[in-house]
């Protein structure tokens, strides 16, 4: 199985699928192709959220504002999974999460390879010209045999994106909005456990009291709430509305939760 | 085969696919993931329109503004098909339509089961945590064996959504716009047969005379028309334009057709 | 394999997939369903760009502003591929490109067949009622046996869309914007070779000097550039921005490149 993720919109991902189909009959599953443009961090968040749901697979993820420059192409092995994409951090948070299942006493192990490629047909569409063939080749060779490929060279020198950690005191956490989802929910980096005793009550969001609920529909349509989303993080939401608008926040904004 | 329908946008449906892939190799086909947010009635319309085109399948449909509340999860068997989703009516119009093929003298039969689920991982994403595993389980068990599953319990107590019927006199039908499609066509609940003698002529739409044509391109670009859409209902349209704008209507609005 | 292309948005393509699934288990791959509405030329551009990446397949492409009128349905054979869609030119540029691989001394050969169809269930959704069954039938019969089908009749009378050619002098090319992609890149019909000696320098776009670069990220965010896109044509772009806005152009606009 090969999953495909990008910020390409349409119809560029189909060109990648055609290229892959010339190499392999592997099943193709789209993760998303409408991720925020040129934003490896947002893509890294979504890959970390979605990919652990999958059985072992090759994941081709191309959010690549540096396409055509000298940034490397990477293949990352994480347990029985492989991730293929540009060296800008986009693959790493998901890779660490996928590797957790195989973690030993030293913690999760990932192995990172640079993927060398000949002068590609374009400098603007490495999804088609570099990453799709790489993903197909890794799939056909096998995730456990990446090192047998001449194009793959182990490296310790790569962009190792990590999400910012919130700063916490006894009764507050100052975090940040990592992404806003399609519903308008503002997903923060604050772990949901800070709300453990607050369900049914309120917390202060940037000083304003907001109800804490498990389900959106526990409040009326249009009402603001704080909840723990399906990613386990604190989320600023509106029942049947957009949290980003109601809380006036966007990705990257700082948020203080007080309880 | 498992079809997937939601109002989730992107990339949430991919998480559902990952979960399903851990249970079954069934083919996955997307119906739509951009249905009107939190609107079970619109989703019910589209499911009734699309699902009867498919051969026997399990259809997982999650438009679920009550996610995380105590609304039940349902499995509905309709002929050789099964539908899986929340108990808010979204599954029923399609189920009745799918059951028609197997109808006997007493009419189409559907069987409704509640699907009991353990405390799910989230209160905000039952698509991933409840409905995807349920659909995969029903698929693996077989549509004809739903009753063998301990989680499935037959029920007569469910939300049985029906679309409103138009009120008709000899020369008028007062109906309503059920949905507006991506082209802007305003699809009403008025059956297309009321236009049978009007093609090439006109009808009155809320008192204004509008041409009735079989094909959009029988009129010039930008011109309004009334036609019978591919769902068999009266549709307010504009050749190469948006009917909803030109007729100033949206889903739920009343429309009177006079002939 | 059957690929699907349309301007239908959602969920109409799913109805086509259901119909196809009643005829064949062929793999289904979406090219795009959000192509510019009712614009066969834009669709023809994208089909010509994407389809040559695929191994032999049946390509069903429905951008069809004349749906329900007397325009013919076509099946075009091009090498080991077949294309199915309306007779408005949408299939032809891709067919010629696909046929190139099999070209002999007389150039690429395509064979065009009209596809006769019975009175379809709708006059507004031939994607479901005409083209999906046609594509499934061609797939099941085999691309090399189209002529054995009673519905297929060879023809020389069809809309043979060709893209406009730029007019060139020694130091200028006057071309046109063919399409704008989802990134906002304005893709012209001017062949990329006119920029061969200009990389790292500038060209004049409608008289204004603009840097020529191979990769978007060779310039700062928001800066305009001219590049050769992955289609081999001159493209007006902005690093991490929209070229169409920055150059104030849209599909169909004339552009003069001077070097």
Give a verbal description of the structure.
Three copies of one chain form a homotrimer. Chain A contains five helices and 15 strands. In chain A, the strands form two sheets. In chain A, strands 8, 9, 10, 11, 12, 13, 14 and 15 form an eight-stranded antiparallel sheet that branches. Chain A has helices spanning 12-23, 40-50, 92-99, 126-141, 243-247; strands at residues 2-6, 28-32, 58-62, 73-78, 81-86, 110-115, 152-154, 167-168, 172-180, 186-191, 202-205, 208-211, 224-228, 233-238, 254-258. In chain A, helix 1 runs parallel beside helix 4 (126-141) and helix 2 (40-50) packs parallel to helix 3. By secondary structure, chain A is of the alpha+beta class. The radius of gyration of chain A is 20 Å and the shape is elongated. The model of chain A has no long low-confidence stretch (mean pLDDT 96). The B-C interface holds B 1, 3, 5, 29-35, 46, 49-55, 181-183, 214-218, 227-230, 235, 240 and C 8-12, 14-19, 21-22, 28, 37-38, 65-69, 121-125, 128-129.
What's the β-strand tally of chain A?
15
- Most extensive interface: pair and counts? A-B, 32 and 28 residues
Radius of gyration of chain A, taken over Cα atoms and rounded to an integer in Å = 20 Å
Secondary-structure element sequence of chain A? EHEHEEEHEHEEEEEEEEHE
Oligomer description: homotrimer
Beta-strand proportion of chain A: 25-35%
Unreliable runs of chain A, pLDDT <50, ≥5 residues? none
- What is the averaged pLDDT score of chain A? 96
Class by SSE composition of chain A = alpha+beta
What level of helicity do the residues of chain A show? 10-25%
Main beta sheet strand tally, sense and closure of chain A: 8 strands, antiparallel
Distance between the termini of chain A: 44 Å
């Amino acid at each position: 199985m090969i999953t495909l993720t990008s910020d390409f919109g349409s119809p560029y991902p189909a060109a990648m699928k055609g290229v892959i189909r010339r190499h392999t009959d592997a099943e193709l599953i789209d993760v998303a192709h409408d991720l925020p443009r040129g934003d490896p961090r947002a893509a890294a968040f979504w890959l970390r959220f979605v990919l652990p749901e999958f059985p072992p697979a090759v994941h081709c993820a191309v959010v690549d504002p540096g396409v055509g420059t000298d940034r490397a192409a990477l293949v990352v092995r994480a347990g029985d999974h492989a991730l293929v994409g540009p060296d800008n951090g986009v693959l790493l948070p998901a890779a660490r999460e996928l590797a957790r299942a195989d973690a030993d006493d030293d913690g999760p192990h990932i192995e990172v390879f640079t993927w060398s490629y000949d002068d590609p047909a374009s400098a603007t569409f490495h999804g088609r010209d570099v990453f799709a063939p790489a993903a197909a080749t890794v799939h056909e060779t096998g995730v456990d045999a990446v090192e047998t490929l001449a194009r793959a060279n182990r490296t310790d020198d790569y962009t190792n994106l990590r999400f910012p950690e919130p700063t916490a005191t006894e009764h507050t956490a100052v975090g940040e909005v990592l992404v806003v989802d399609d519903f308008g929910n503002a997903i923060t980096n604050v772990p949901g456990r800070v709300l453990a005793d607050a369900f049914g009550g309120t917390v202060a969001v940037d000083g304003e009291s907001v109800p804490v609920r498990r389900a959106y529909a526990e409040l009326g349509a249009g009402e603001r709430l704080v909840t723990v989303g399906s990613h386990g993080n604190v989320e600023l939401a509106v029942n049947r509305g957009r949290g980003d608008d109601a809380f006036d926040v966007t990705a990257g904004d700082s948020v203080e939760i007080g309880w």
